Each structure stands twice: as C-alpha cells, then as structure tokens.
Amino acid sequence: MNNLILIGFMGCGKTSVGFQLAKRLNFNFCDTDQIIEEKVKDTINHIFEIKGEEYFRKLETETIKGLIGKLNNTVLSVGGGLPIQTGNERLIRELGCVVYLKTSKDTIMQRLSGDTTRPLLAGDQDKRIEKLLSFRAPIYEAAAHLIVTTDGRLIHDIIDEIINRT
Ligand code: S3P
Predict the structure, then answer these.
(1) Quick one: 34 exposed, middle or buried, by C-beta within 10 A (0-12, 13-18, 19+)?
(2) pLDDT value at residue 116
(3) Does this entry carry the keyword Zinc-finger (predicted)?
(4) Most distant CA pair in the chain: distance in Å?
(5) What CA–CA distance (Å, rounded) separates 97 from 99?
(6) What are the pocket residues of ligand 1 if the criterion is a CB atom closer than 6 Å to any ligand atom?
(7) Which of the listed residues 31, 52, 76, 97 has the most CB atoms within 10 Å of its CB?
C-alpha cells in the first residue's frame, strides 16, 4: 500500500494540492466528495439540502469503508468533516499516510470568502469557520501522521515538503 490521505478544514487546499501531488508522483488522485457526487448523482449542496447532514455523513463513512484495501499509489483528498466522525480517523489511517494540511483561521476565512458551495458555512461564515475549526483542529492533528502548514505558501513548496517527509 502506498497512499497519501489529505485531511484538513474546508479551503485548506486538499483538492488543489492533492491533484498536483498525484501528478508529481504519478499517482492516481481521488476525492471523497467527488466519489459521493458520482455515486448518488447529486451535488454535495443538494444532498445536504434534501437529505441533511446526517445522511451525508453516512455516505462519507460508507465511502471510506469501501476504499479499504482498494487503493494503491493514490492521493486521496478527504472532505473536511469526514475525519471528525467517530471511527473514521482509524479508517483513514488504515488507508495510508495521513497528511494534515494545517491552515489558520484567517487564511481559511480569506480563501472561502464569497464561497457558496459549502452548506455548513451558510449564514455568518466567519463565525462558523471559527467555531468549527477550533473544534476540529485537535482531531485533525490526532489523526495525522504528518502535519504540513499551508499559510502563505505556494502549492509546489507544500508538495515538496510532503514528498520530502513521507
Ligand atoms: C465539509 C467539507 C466539504 C464537503 C461538505 C462538508 C465539512 O469538503 O465534504 O461540504 O464538513 O467540512 P471540503 O473539505 O473538500 O471542502
């Protein structure tokens, strides 16, 4: 097994870093949100709207369980809430080397300003980010084999660090 699992808060760069990292390593790239959208043929936003968050979390857990034993030479980007659900932390660690893309609250706020694709941030976005991030950050840290900061850094620099340290 030779996989890298990228975790972190919405807007930390999992998809952009993951895609480029996979290209550099000549690995496959996949993303749990994309797998879910393809499976249920619906958007994450619409799934939240029609079926609610709990249903979406079940889909996430099913998805991660379904990947056990199936990935090789893959970079997997994982939705920001997936590692937070009880038991999922252990599952992602079974899949490969878990890399937490650690990003500050201010950077996330800047990057997600005006974003309408994240249903959990609807309303007072900055407050929601602050509350969710302070709850989740210690869980991401505990789940990670490796922590890489992203604030003020270029993608290729982040990728170099991941490659050098794994
Ligand atoms: C979520 C993060 C999103 C997506 C959904 C819920 C979360 O993925 O799975 O909107 O709970 O943090 P990204 O982290 O890729 O934005």
Answers:
(1) middle
(2) 87
(3) no
(4) 43
(5) 6
(6) 10, 14, 33, 44, 79-81, 118-120
(7) 76
Q: E-strand spans in the chain?
A: 3-7, 28-31, 74-77, 97-102, 146-149
List the one residue out of 127, 119, 31 whose CA is nearest residue 82: 31
Sequence-ordered list of residues with C-beta below 8 angstroms from that of 1, at least 6 positions apart, any chain:
71, 72, 95, 96
Q: Is 110 exposed, middle or buried (0-12, 13-18, 19+ CB in 10 A)?
A: exposed
Question: What backbone torsions phi and psi does residue 115 show, to the nearest 5 degrees?
Answer: -75, 135
For ligand 1, what atom is nearest to the CA of residue 15? 15
**Could you give the ipTM of this predicted complex?**
0.98
Regarding the domain with residue range 3-165, which homologous superfamily does it belong to in the CATH classification?
P-loop containing nucleotide triphosphate hydrolases (3.40.50.300)
Taking the domains of the chain in order of start, what are their residue ranges? 3-165
User: Is residue 12 a known part of a binding site?
Assistant: yes
* Whether pTM exceeds 0.90: yes
pLDDT at 1 over 80: no
Cα(80) to ligand 1 centroid in Å equals 4
Q: How many CA atoms lie within 13 A of 15 on its CB side?
A: 9
